[in-house]
Amino acid sequence: MLTERQLLILQVIIDDFITTAQPVGSRSISKKDAVTFSSATVRNEMADLEEMGFIEKTHSSSGRIPSEKGYRFYVDHLLSPLRLSDSEVTIIRDAFTDKMMEFEQVVQKSAGILSDLTNYTSIILGPEVFETKLKQLQIVPLNDQSAIAILVTNTGHVEHRAFNVPVEVSTSDLEKMVNILNARLRGVPLIQLHEKLYEEIGGLLKAHTDQYEKAFAYLRAALVEEQPTKLYIGGKTNILMQPEFRDLDKVRSLYATIEKESEMADLLRSDDEGIRVRIGQENPFDAMQNCSLITASYRLGNDQIGTIALLGPTRMEYNRMFSLMNVLSKHMTSTFRGWY
Amino acid sequence: MLTERQLLILQVIIDDFITTAQPVGSRSISKKDAVTFSSATVRNEMADLEEMGFIEKTHSSSGRIPSEKGYRFYVDHLLSPLRLSDSEVTIIRDAFTDKMMEFEQVVQKSAGILSDLTNYTSIILGPEVFETKLKQLQIVPLNDQSAIAILVTNTGHVEHRAFNVPVEVSTSDLEKMVNILNARLRGVPLIQLHEKLYEEIGGLLKAHTDQYEKAFAYLRAALVEEQPTKLYIGGKTNILMQPEFRDLDKVRSLYATIEKESEMADLLRSDDEGIRVRIGQENPFDAMQNCSLITASYRLGNDQIGTIALLGPTRMEYNRMFSLMNVLSKHMTSTFRGWY
DNA sequence: ATTTAGCACTCAAGTAAATCGAGTGCTAAC
DNA sequence: GTTAGCACTCGATTTACTTGAGTGCTAAAT
C-alpha cells in the first residue's frame, strides 16, 4: 500500500502534469509548500512509485509522468472535488434559465457549453427511443403532388418527411386515412410502428378502395424510416488545442473513430448511472489510446437514459470535468423532468 | 500577351503544382512529353512568366509556383473541363436517385458528397426565406402543461417548437385559436409573420376572452423566432489533409473564420448565377489568404437562390471542382424543381 | 534507519557548422 | 532562337557539440 508521503507525491505529480503537460522533476516537487522533504527523498519515493507502476519516465533521465495506472488511482482515490468557478456556474445556469422546450436544443446547448468550458470534445448521445410513443400524425398537403407527413411523439420529438402523393389520391382521401391511422396508432411505441402499420393496413384495405393502397404505400415509406440514435458532437476542433495532438495523423485517426456514429453510440450507451471514466487503454479503440473518455448519464422521463461524454487527452482535468458533468447532467435531467 | 509556349509552360507548372504541392523546376517541365524544348529554354520562358507575375519562386534558387495572378489566369483561360470519373458520376447519381423529399436532407447530402469527393471543405448556404409562406400552423398538445407548435411552409420546410401552456388555457381554447390563426395567416410570408400576428391579435382579443391573450403570448414566443439563413458545413476536418495547413495556427484561424456564420453567409450570398472563384487575396478574410473559394448557385423554386461552396487551398483542382460543382448544383436545382 | 547533500551520468533539445542537391541565371556555342 | 555548360544560391539534411534538467547512487548527517 502507498504511504501518505507517496500519495502526496503522486498527487503533486499528476496535478502538475495535468496543468503543464510536462514531466515533473523531483526538485519542483520538493519546492511545493506541502512538501517538506528534500528532492533526494522525493527521488527515492518516485523510484518506488515507478516500480509500482503509478508513474513512468519518458526517457532515462526525465522527470516523471503519470502512467495510466496512476491516472486510474488518481481518479479512484485522489480526486478532490473541485468547486466550479463562479463564471462557470453562471454560464451553465444562464443557459438553462433560457426557456428551452426542445430536446435537441437542450442537447445542442449542453454539448456547446461542455466543449466551450473544457476545450475538450463533447459527445452527447440522445436517449433511446424504445419508449417513445406516437402522439399524433399529421399530413399537410403542399400541392397536388406532394405533402408532408409529420409525426409527433409523446416526448415532444417531431419528425417530418415530405412525400409524393400519387395523382389518384385526393386530399380528402389522405385526410380520412390519417384520421384512421391516428385513431389506431396513437400511443403505439415508435419501435412497433412498422409492424402495427402492417397490421392495420389489412383492415383499412378491406374497408376501402385501392386508392388507399397507393397512398398508404407512400405514407408508410415516409414514416417508417430507421431513426438511429443521434450523436451530437461539440468542439470537435478543440482537440487541436491539446499539445498531445500536435501530430496530425493522430488527430485524423481520432476523428475517423469519433465519426463512426454507431460504434461511438455503442461505446457511450451505458446501463449504469453516474460518472464513468475510461482511461487510455481502457478505451476499445486504438485511436483513443492517449485519450480519456468521461461519460455521465442523464435521464429523460423515467427510463430513457442518454449519455453525455467528454473526450480529451488522458492528461485531463478530471476533477473539474467531474463537477461539470455532474452539474450538467443534473441540469439536463431536471429540465427534461419539467416536461414530462 | 503570352506565346503558345508560355501558355504551355504555365499550364504544366500549375497542373504539376496542383498535384504535387512542390515547386516545379525547369528540368521536370522539359521532360514532359508535350514539351519539346530544353530546360534552358524553359528557364528563359519562366523568367519572362515570372516578370509578368504569373509565377514566383519560393526562394532564389527554387522551382516556380503559381502566383495568384497565375491561378486567376489559369482559371479564366487555361481550364480544360475535366470529365468526371465514372465512380464520381455514379456516386452523385446514386445519391440523387434516392428519393429525397426534404430540403435539409438534400443539402446535407450534397455537402457530404462534395467534401467526400474533394477532400476540401464544403459550405452550403440555404436559400433565403423571403418568399417562403406559411402553409399551415398546427398545435399538438403533449400534456396539461405543454404543447408543440408546428409551422409548415409552402416550400415544405417544417419548424417546430415546444412551449408551455398556461393552466388557464384549455386545449380546446388553443385549438380554436389555431383555427383562427390558420384562417388568417395562411399564405403570409414568414418574414411578415411577426407584424401580421400583431395585427391579427387585436381582432382576436376583442372577440374573445383574456385566456386568449395568455395563450397567444406563449404561442407567439413559440412561433416568431429569428430564423437565420442556415449554413451547412461538410468535411471541416478535411482541411487538415492539405499540406498547406500543416500549421495549426492557420487552421485555427481558418476555423474561426468559417464559424462566423453571418459573415460567411454574406460572403456566399451571390446575386449572379454560375460558378465563381475567389482566389487568395480576392477573399475578404485574412485567414483565407491561402485559400480559394469556389461558389455556385442552385435554385429552389423560381427566385430563391442558395449557394454551394468549396473551400480549399489556392492550389486546388479547379477543373475537377468546376465539373463537380456544376453537376451538383444542377442535380440540386432539378431535384428541387420536381417539388414545387 | 531515514533523510539529505553531493556527484557522476543520461538524454532530449537546441545550436552551429558541414554537406547535399535541386534549381537558377548567365554565357557562349550551335 | 535554342541549348549545353557552369558557377552560384539556398533550403533541407546531416553531423557534431553544447546545454541543462533530471536521475540514481553513495556516503555523510540526523
Key traits:
12 helices; Enolase-like, domain 1; five-stranded antiparallel sheet; alpha+beta; homodimer; DNA-binding; 19% strand; 46% helix; Arc Repressor Mutant, subunit A; 3 domains; three-stranded antiparallel sheet; 340 residues; Beta-Lactamase
Outline the structure in words.
The structure is a homodimer of 340-residue chains. Chain A is α+β, with helices and mostly antiparallel strands and 340 residues long. Chain A has 3 domains: 4-78, Winged helix-like DNA-binding domain superfamily/Winged helix DNA-binding domain (Arc Repressor Mutant, subunit A), CATH 1.10.10.10; 86-128 and 229-339, GAF domain (Beta-Lactamase, 2-Layer Sandwich); 134-223, Enolase-like, N-terminal domain (Enolase-like, domain 1), CATH 3.30.390. Chain A has helices at 4-20, 26-30, 39-51, 68-78, 86-97, 103-118, 171-185, 193-207, 211-223, 248-258, 261-268, 318-339; strands at residues 55-57, 64-66, 121-125, 134-141, 146-153, 158-164, 231-234, 275-279, 291-300, 304-313. In chain A, the strands form 3 sheets. Chain A has a 5-stranded antiparallel sheet. In chain A, a hairpin with a 4-residue loop joins strand 4 (134-141) and strand 5. In chain A, helix 1 (4-20) crosses helix 4, helix 7 packs across helix 8 (193-207) and helix 8 runs antiparallel to helix 9 (211-223). The longest helix of chain A has 22 residues, at 318-339. The mean pLDDT of chain A is 87. The structure holds a DNA duplex (30 and 30 nucleotides).
Name the CATH class of the largest domain in chain A: Alpha Beta
The CATH homologous superfamily of the largest domain in chain A: GAF domain
Taking pLDDT < 50 over at least 5 consecutive residues as the criterion, the unreliable ranges of chain A are none
Q: Portion of residues in helices of chain A?
A: 40-55%
Shape of chain A: elongated
Task: State the separation between the terminal residues of chain A, measured CA to CA.
Answer: 49 Å
Strand order of the largest sheet of chain A: 7-3-10-9-8
Provide the number of structural domains of chain A.
3
Count of distinct strands of chain A = 10
From the coordinates shown, what is the CATH architecture of the largest domain in chain A? 2-Layer Sandwich
> And the CATH topology of the largest domain in chain A?
Beta-Lactamase
Reported for the largest beta sheet of chain A, the result is: 5 strands, antiparallel
For this entry, what is the oligomeric state of its chains?
A: homodimer
- Alpha carbon gyration radius of chain A: 27 Å
Strand content of chain A: 15-25%
Mean pLDDT figure of chain A? 87
Specify the structural class of chain A: alpha+beta
> SSE order of chain A, as H and E?
HHHEEHHHEEEEHHHEHHEEEH
Largest interface: A-B, 34 and 33 residues
